Amino acid sequence: MNRYTIEVRITPRQGLLDPEGQAVLGALRSLEFEEVGEVRVGRLIRLALEARSAEEARERADAMCRRLLANPVTEDYRIDIESVS
Amino acid sequence: MNRYTIEVRITPRQGLLDPEGQAVLGALRSLEFEEVGEVRVGRLIRLALEARSAEEARERADAMCRRLLANPVTEDYRIDIESVS
Asked: Which residues form the domain of A31?
């Protein structure tokens, strides 16, 4: 088995409201960061896992996203894999 | 002025407890994802902003992290910049 580090980036789907992003935008503007036009807030999840191959690691991470980590109706996710020697 | 998309990845500092990561790890294990060894949960913030240069965009994003987005005691952050034509 090999060890992998997986990074999952979960973001609210384009076109859906993102109240947390709106709140951060308001706070940045009140701090005079007026050049900011849009803010979206998502989650970043780093996992350490064992798998036979990078392909298997990606498949397992994808299953984790579908079953637990991401909400498929409201969120998109992207998986990046790094192998750990 | 040019338009940039900034991605900020905020993660709990190494060595600090991450209760949310522990909770996700427990949930993954109970779903029989037993190959997962560690989970850390952070935030992903995407900003659209205007700046004269990529360097200025990075400086402004760094100031936003220090003043609002990240907790400098408990979190690390990484800034990636993409220019939008």
From this structure: 2-84
